[in-house]
């Protein structure tokens, strides 16, 4: 059975009792300091101890004390004149009761108090102390200071072979954070610890950029190494993440470390579709979906016609990963194929994009033809015309046919303003009479457009001869 050396009356800050086996407990008011314990106070701490018989001692911070049996409150105060020895205890009690005229338990306090006085009441006897013959304590508490920055070593005032060292502060460190590859790219965090409470665990917390967390608890190996593998990322978003590890050192103080990394568990993606084209209103409606693109992100959209003209617009990603935009004005674009491109950036900074095509037919195609001149002398023809929705640079095919079915063909090129012309078309191989001229082309939507005109060729003068037979 251990011997109680002192009782803790009050503490400020952290005060520990370290048992001979190295275990440690935090002391509070009412706790006992036992023989063999080492009292340790942290810097700026203080403990008030009661060693018995009103003997209290204040222990300041940064001090270590070995509590020995010699400190126990079993000592004999010096015998004073007002003291009674052990052999005379019975006689002293009898004398007291005789003076009181009754048993000690029935005595009342004198009117003037225990010190008496001229106006006091009945006689009284003041008992200073009744003591027994006990060998006086020969040792008083011994205090050792602790140098700043060093852990206190319990050594001062201890008996030989009874030294105890306060547990060192714990340490923890993240050695690496890595991400695997494949269908499930795990996040693996490794680290090491020293001087933790025996059997204690390490808590590893993964936090994404939206504040969502995953927590694992692992017990380090005997070598102090630990590993945590995160493979289920439900509720976690891709992008920057932080890893924090925490544990409790053997000295009771929490230790922590952290590291930053990146999670890329989901491949970014984007698709776009042309929902409709209103040729009359000349507007376009678009929609699409994304993967691993954060809600609120902007989708950049461009619509390009066959002539390279571009209309730009944007859409915003919704909470469900979808986006849409309607009534996009494409009145400034030419008829024909429209190429729609959409792009965005996923949570890991990677670009994602998609494209789609559609056909705009807001303008009806058309072509006109006119015979500007027929030069009978030179046997040439000049032609011209206009087009609608036929792209500049397109070819207009022209044929000129006489009354005998003989044909002359030529071509003209559509100008930027949609017009075309051709001059000095040689028709010397055609016979006089009506000429039928046809012109045709293809508009921007691949529809054929054409027109025709007639003229008269009179390149050869009429001649009649007659002969009289004799």
Automatic annotation (TrEMBL):
**What sections of the protein cross the membrane?**
none
What residue spans carry the region label Disordered? Answer: 442-470
List the InterPro entries: Ig-like_fold, LapA-like_RM
Q: Which Gene3D superfamilies match?
A: Immunoglobulins
The name under which this protein is listed is Retention module-containing protein
Whose protein is this, by species? Marinobacter manganoxydans MnI7-9
